[in-house]
């Protein structure tokens, strides 16, 4: 059985999907982009600002499911320019302690929703 997870502390879906699905002890988040849930506007600052908003959105979705970044076992990072990898990674690394950092892949793609620079999704377990 699956449970739909949605919170007003992360951006509302912009299509036919939910912020996350909890099935059994596993949470699958949808990809988050840098939309400020308070204004519903894209963050258009630096790549660091954009990545911080993405991670804060994911933090809110995890919290709604009763989880934290310690529960995350896998992340997928999609970026529009691999030259931004080190800046994205620097922000991302502030959310994880190396002792519980998840498995991860980072992939450069030609385009992302709303032409953002980074999108991240996660899988977490209880």
UniProtKB/TrEMBL annotation:
InterPro entries: RidA, RutC-like_sf, YjgF/YER057c/UK114. Transmembrane segments: none annotated. It holds the Pfam family Ribonuc_L-PSP. PANTHER family: 2-IMINOBUTANOATE/2-IMINOPROPANOATE DEAMINASE RIDA (PTHR11803), PROTEIN HMF1-RELATED (PTHR11803:SF58). Belongs to the RutC family. This is RidA family protein. It comes from Winogradskyella alexanderae.
């Amino acid at each position: 059985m699956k449970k739909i997870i949605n919170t007003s502390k992360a951006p509302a879906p912009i299509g036919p999907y939910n912020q996350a699905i909890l099935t059994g002890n596993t949470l699958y988040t949808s990809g988050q982009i840098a939309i400020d849930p308070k204004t519903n506007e894209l963050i258009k600052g630096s790549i660091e600002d954009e990545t911080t908003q993405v991670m804060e959105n994911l933090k809110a979705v995890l919290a709604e499911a009763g989880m934290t970044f310690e529960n995350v076992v896998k992340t997928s990072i999609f970026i529009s320019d691999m030259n931004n990898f080190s800046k994205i990674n620097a922000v991302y690394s502030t959310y994880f302690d190396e002792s519980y950092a998840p498995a991860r892949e980072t992939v450069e793609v030609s385009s992302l929703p709303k032409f953002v620079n980074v999108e991240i999704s996660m899988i977490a377990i209880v």
